[in-house]
Amino acid sequence: MRADNSRHIRQAAERRHELTRSKAVAALRELQNHGGPVTFKAVAAAAGVSRSWLYTQIDLRTVIIGLREDRPQQPRASRSSASTESLRARLSASLERNRELSTEIEHLRHQLALALGHSRRRNTIGL
């Protein structure tokens, strides 16, 4: 009969959990002290943990949400005319590609019709 090693596995998981928590808390303090944005994404990146794990930690989640709401969010940059121009360029390129493909389809249909005609002629002559 094998020895029950589940105690060791639980202890290792607990140590890993505590190490991960300490990294998250340190990252949270660092962001808070240096005035950086305190968001789930920022804390997760700084601590090297996943955002989904942060959401499962109720106390850390509460702190992050509280700090996030205390600080006014920086207004996001509005879309510039460059992005509109970029979209127009992409649309123009797509329309040109569409024209090319339509021309190619018509050419292939014509070739198919010729091939079917030749095939029918061979079949009728061979009878």
- Count of DSSP H/I helices: 5
Distance between the termini: 82 Å
In the predicted model, the low-confidence regions spanning at least 5 consecutive residues are none
Structural class: mainly alpha
How many strand units? 0
Rg (CA only): 32 Å
Strand composition percent: under 5%
Helix content estimate = over 70%
**Sheet having the most strands:** none
Average predicted confidence as pLDDT: 86
**Shape category:** elongated
Along the chain, the helix and strand elements come as HHHHH
Descriptive keywords:
127 residues, 0% strand, elongated, mainly alpha
Secondary-structure blueprint:
Blueprint: H1 6-33, H2 40-47, H3 51-56, H4 58-70, H5 81-125
Helix pairs in contact: 1-2
Written overview of the protein:
This protein is mostly helical and 127 residues long. It has helices at 6-33, 40-47, 51-56, 58-70, 81-125. The chain is 79% helix and 0% strand. The longest helix has 45 residues, at 81-125. The radius of gyration is 32 Å and the shape is elongated. It starts with 5 loop residues before the first helix and ends with a helix.
Quick structural summary:
With 127 residues, the chain is mainly alpha-helical. Helix content is 79%, strand content 0%. The protein is built from 5 helices and no strands.
